[in-house]
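The data are quoted verbatim for reference:
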Amino acid sequence: MPTAPQNTDELYQALEENDRLPYGRTRTVTAEELVDAAEQLAEPVPLVHALFELQEAYTYGSEPRKSPVVFARLLNLFDEQPDVFDERRRHTLFWRFKWVADALRVLPEIPLAGLRQWLTEMRDRYEKAGLGLQPYYGQAYQLAAHIGEGTTLAYELWAGRSRTGLSDCEACEICERALYHLAAGDDERALNDWEPVLAGKESCQEEPARSVSYALLPLLRSGRVDRARELHLAGYRNCRRNPSMSGEVGRHLEFCALTGNEARGLELLAENRNLFGEVESPLDLFDFLTGAEVLLQRVESLGHGELPAAGYAGRTWTVAGLRAEVRGRADDLAARFDARNGTTAHTDRRRVRLDRAPLVDALELTLRTRGLDEVAPAAPVAAPAARTAAEVPESLPELILRARTLDEQGHPDARACWAKLRTLAASRDYAHPDDPAVGPLARLRADLLSDEASRTGEKDEFAEAAALHEEAAGLYEDAGAPGDAAVARACALLAAAEIPAEIPAEGAEGAEGAGSADGADGAGGAAVKAAALASAHAAMVRLHEEASGLAPHQEARLLRLRATALGMRLQTSGDEAHVAPVLAEADLLLAFATRHELGGQISGALLLRATTHALSGDLPAAVTVIDGVRDRLKAHGPAWHLPRTLALRGRIQLGLRDAQAAQADLAEGLRLAADWPADVVDTARLHADLAEVCMHLGRPDEALRHLTRSAELELRRGSRTDAYCAYSNAAQLCLDLGRVEDCIALLDSLLAEPDVAAGEVDDRLVAQLRLTRARALHTGEDLKAATTEFVALAAESARWDDDPGSHVMIAAETAVLLGESGEFGRAREAAEQAIAAHARAPRYEQLSGCLRELARLQAERQGPEGLADARAHLAEAGRIADEARAAEYEAQGRSLDTALAYEHGRVNAYAGEYEDALAALEKALALLGGPTPEKGEDHAGEWAECLRLTAAVEGIYLERPAPALNRLDAAVSRLTALGHTEEAEPLSSLANRLRDGG
């Protein structure tokens, strides 16, 4: 707190601001400082408010030892100055007797006699005040349930009484009733009791998160697996990292352990590592540690005790080591509670949880399913292949020669040989064979560097790949292999040409594009990259001409690299003039490969021709060529080229708008790809292409599966940026499908990745992930969390000088969310940021929509008082519409002028200015124009809604039913005649209401 409040107004303002903060140390420390400030004011009422705020901070900040101390001060003030407590403050005071009972119960150092003494105090105080005793009996039952004795009688004494104004909320009482039936072994009755809370009909500060955590296992036992999955995703999000809900987190960890999601459990444990040191409630800590132990025990039993685990700060933990530590601490807590209570309830409950067997073999909880084998940090590996790979020779000379032969052929098995050789050569006792056929050690090192460079380039790390190829070329020359050196230098030229150019990217897509991390995006960047590729090709031609003594496979590779450089230039530029040079180079390669019977290069040349035809827009020619390639490969091989060939054929068929044929080709390609390592045949691309095809076929759920599989494969081969882009698309598709919790869970998992958290991933890509998450939170009606994220993103995007367009979009959405939260001052500030950025990168529709929505919200929430500000927003939107008109911009939907007139109508209607509203709506109707067969259903719906609001203003608020009915009747007839019966129904309903005098 910068400065202490100097008067009561400042104190109340500070209390209100602190109340908006999340529970935690920051809020608690500020609450303590505000109590000190209130004491200096020497006024009892402000002090009471400050003490109430402090007790709340302690209670929900998981500091139960301090809550009773604060309440004791409040109780003394009440006894000494009862007049200070008006009805509201008195209600709060008596309500919080229950908070103290809860706080004392979770502390094992408080004697049982002390707990009962407090309940007696509560009963006496309630009776003296003439208050009903149902809340007292509720606390008595909770104590009995905690101890494990006298539960049935205590439950009947509580549950049979009528609720009072001081009873716990409906949601909390439902949870207690359900837990009673759950403890009795009646899952079905417990779930029936819980249904209103689980369905979101009853809620409070702690609910439904608390009930959800307890209901997960009963749902599994009763076969409601999908509901359990859904509630786990939503419920976990509402309690993660929250010290006051650490017990709930523990039950979610247990749920993961018992559903085959041990890897996700370890991920969630890492996300909640703070709870090991921040939970001050021994009972909550007991629940958390027991849930964590269930998970750790399960992981260890599966043979993964040496996996890393997130635990207590100050040291590195393995699963086995952390489990031992957690077991000791949880056992100690159970013993302390049982000693205090004089029962074995906590030890018994702990044993039941630890002895529970998995309830489901494998439940797919999230779109990012991972196994324990993927948890340990390791070098990326290719997905296991279904085909049995050729046996790797044991003899070192044979292994080296085999690797080179396979590499010359482009055979996928070469990588396994190079991998084994890399391991052997790295060992201290490696002895290189003295064999002329094998050559010197320098040549082997060059081979290994060349393989590493190729794999690095596949991950789009082009600068490093170019350096590795150059280093390999030098070693080849030292080893007396000039042909291999020439090939390596050509590879270095191509990799260097692909290094993103550092140029200003005006108008780049930024966060909204999810793929603009490459600095060469945009027209300017494309020109720079095309020029670099042309230069690389020219250098390759010179290199080729100067090289001598090339073996056929080496010369073919140089020709292939030359053709590839020109093909990439065509792909980058899209220039028709670049088509012929590619075809010429492909013809050279084809002729050479045919003459020397190099099967892999023959199919490569033909694929390049097909791709070039496709890029030039000649899809029929591309199909003709690709069909020939397919038939040739089926007859003569190489078989590993078939998946890529079918993938290209599928993309061409999609270009020809034959999604069914595309799906057939891609599915066959995917089937054949299973015989080869995923990175060699690019299985990830096949899945991505199938996702696109499935969307065209109207099968979005299948598309989602392919997208996530594509992302997983990209991660396995180390292409993390491509993986995050694929996951970003999957998250957006989830959101489009209404699978909000799946979307949020996927993004939470990605944003928790170490490289993302460490800032090693492109900031715009991370911003796109966060933006999608914020939108999902908004869709899921978590307005507070969504607004917080949007505000943070708006602040960051304001610094994107190269991408003001994205800032317009983010700031505009932020403004709307702040308006929905009723923070119109901050909303105006965000809108002004959007307007300023719009001046540099116009976003007419987004900004106009933002201003119109802010106007509507302010008029709706504030009525006449908000009309002036609402009209100011609309005036600004009018200026934007004028700019758009001058720029000859055409909106995608209805025109900006039409939308603006309609919003003027709504805003004036909300503010009670009905004549102005009617005039604006009639203008909107005129701009829209009536429905016609050509304008379609969407236009008819917009027109009908505008007319409905016009008639409502005219007939109801201006009390002119006759002209309103004339409008409605004419509109209904017109819509019905055009077949728009659904759009006509609301108009008929309003007409009937007006005729009935309503």
